Amino acid sequence: MDANGEELAPAVRSILSAARDRTGGGERVSVDARSVPEAFAAAEADGRAPVIAEVKPTSPTTDGRRDDDPVDLARAMVDGGAAALSVLTESDHFGGSPASLERIRAAVDVPVLRKDFILTEAQLDVVESDAVLLIARFVDDLPALVAAARERGFQPLVEVHTRAELDRAVAADADLIGINNRDLARLEVDLDTFESLAPSVPDDVTLLAESGIASTADVQRMRSAGADALLIGSAIMDGDVTANVRRLTTA
Ligand SMILES: O=P(O)(O)OC[C@@H](O)[C@@H](O)c1c[nH]c2ccccc12
């Protein structure tokens, strides 16, 4: 059971128990971050849908694993028009690493989001990134972790899946919020999630639609429902990543 009183999918329980074992807590990070909202605005001005393309070698819901150099993948995504990148640093279930994020961030000039299951302040002190994901469902003291991220220069992206989590994100002063279409209890995706929660998000929040966006029709659907930007992983990682990003950003 988690805080929502709902059973989590076994893969997610395994991810969380690995996350609890990671101590983090190297030297305190202080980052001079590339602005995520500015990167979205630049993409819009250039006629592209703002997309955060995700470097995700594998996942509990993906068959197989992509072994290309993550830096090559990242560059190819930027070539296709990605406004920003998301890089998994979780190694046990997603094939990512802090080292690949570090290399990617040195190789591109767009903002890079660190995608991991961060539960404690010490786990922020692992690698420099422009933004960090904080999953409302798993973080006990969200206002404290949002503040701790900002103190280090990170832009916190708070991920929500329910109305109650959205209210907690807003109360924690989040100004970058992602609505995850994937239910972490069942690992199923439903784009209705974004459509039903987006109207309750305050206007001054930069709002992302996350997960399950596979086609240009999905991009248009999320944009019409109020998404300022889209976070897309699997549909980009499957095949020619440059062509995939180009197709999805010119929807
Ligand atoms: O591959 P998709 O369905 O396009 O989803 C991307 C991203 O939203 C997903 O990887 C994700 C959303 N929240 C997360 C939290 C941790 C790890 C991964 C995620």
Automatic annotation (TrEMBL):
What's the top EC group for this one? lyase
Its domain of life reads Archaea
Identify the residues that the record assigns to the Indole-3-glycerol phosphate synthase domain, covering every copy.
28-248
EC number, as in UniProt: 4.1.1.48
One Pfam family from the record: IGPS
Instruction: Tell me which Gene Ontology terms the entry assigns under biological process.
Output: L-tryptophan biosynthetic process
Look up the record and name the pathway of this protein.
Answer: Amino-acid biosynthesis; L-tryptophan biosynthesis; L-tryptophan from chorismate: step 4/5
What keywords are annotated for this sequence in UniProt?
A: Amino-acid biosynthesis, Aromatic amino acid biosynthesis, Decarboxylase, Lyase, Tryptophan biosynthesis
Database matches in SUPFAM superfamilies: Ribulose-phoshate binding barrel
Q: Which family does it belong to?
A: Belongs to the TrpC family.
Q: Which HAMAP family match?
A: IGPS_A (MF_00134_A)
Instruction: Specify the protein name.
Output: Indole-3-glycerol phosphate synthase
Tell me the organism: Haloplanus ruber
Q: Which gene encodes it?
A: trpC
